[in-house]
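Need residues for this backbone.
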């Protein structure tokens, strides 16, 4: 028998795809209001697109708890936002984690210096110093600058244990204090431990020169967490390019996290880990609107 959840998930996927198609001009309503010659969208088209998008968001948000089915029960999630990411989006994701039965164990903000190619010397020097203060094998001895920093951050805030959450401990405190002191990563709330899962919330497009930085940070952090989802809550340029990088094979990616539908998709993707590992989800996701298996 096909389950109720299957029907709901299918409908959510259709609604998300429809909303994306209407907005982007590629959906089944894309030809409405057009003549044989190219015409600009009418006000009616714009209103229809807004209504479709609003309905998809509302539907996803109201049905989220049932879709989650406590899929994050006994699991900790850490939220890491990048420059330009919205506080509103981060807070909304925290609420969705709770709705799925999970617990946000910490919230951190990557500062502009960390994703600035001109500050590589600072990042490299600090990473090297921290590595010597930690037991051998904590981070890869041959890791590149940003992979190493990602590993250090992952060591401090994440855990490879699939369930529960781990204490921060002296090691985490040392790393986080050093990152904060150098103006690279700051805490945006009281941390209660290290988490199994991490959500990286992208914001502004830092440009192609910063792409290796994002890829390195994602790769390093993913090696110290049970699961990672990279979500775009604003400009999708960085996410689009990251999806083409081998680093994306270690995480799941979701676009449209600035809306409720994208936020629900992000958390649903976590509930399906590790089946969703390497998947690309959202309105522009290559693997479909929703990361469910």
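Answer:
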């Amino acid at each position: 028998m096909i389950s109720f959840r299957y029907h709901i998930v299918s409908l959510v996927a259709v609604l998300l795809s429809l909303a994306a198609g209407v907005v982007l001009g590629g959906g089944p309503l894309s030809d409405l209001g057009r003549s044989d010659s190219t015409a600009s969208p009418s006000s009616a088209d714009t209103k229809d697109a807004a209504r479709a998008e609003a309905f998809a968001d509302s539907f996803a948000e109201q049905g989220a708890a049932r879709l989650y089915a406590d899929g994050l029960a006994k699991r900790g999630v850490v939220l890491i936002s990048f420059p330009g990411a919205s506080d509103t989006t981060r807070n909304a994701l925290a609420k969705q984690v709770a709705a799925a039965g999970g617990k946000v164990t910490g919230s951190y903000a990557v500062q502009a210096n960390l994703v600035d190619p001109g500050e590589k010397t600072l990042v490299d020097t600090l990473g090297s110093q921290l590595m010597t203060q930690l037991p051998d094998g904590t981070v890869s001895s041959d890791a590149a600058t940003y992979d190493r920093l990602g590993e250090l951050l992952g060591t401090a805030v994440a855990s490879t244990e699939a369930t529960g959450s781990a204490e921060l401990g002296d090691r985490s405190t040392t790393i986080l204090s050093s990152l904060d002191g150098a103006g690279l990563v700051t805490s945006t709330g009281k941390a209660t431990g290290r988490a199994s899962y991490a959500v990286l919330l992208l914001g502004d497009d830092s440009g192609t020169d910063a792409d290796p930085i994002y890829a390195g940070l994602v790769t390093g952090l993913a090696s110290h967490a049970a699961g990672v989802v990279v979500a775009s809550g604003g400009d999708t340029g960085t996410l689009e390019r990251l999806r083409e990088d081998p680093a994306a094979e270690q995480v799941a990616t979701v676009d449209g996290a600035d809306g409720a539908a994208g936020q629900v998709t992000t958390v649903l993707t976590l509930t399906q880990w590790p089946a969703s590992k390497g998947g690309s989800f959202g309105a522009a996701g290559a693997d479909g609107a929703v990361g469910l298996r």
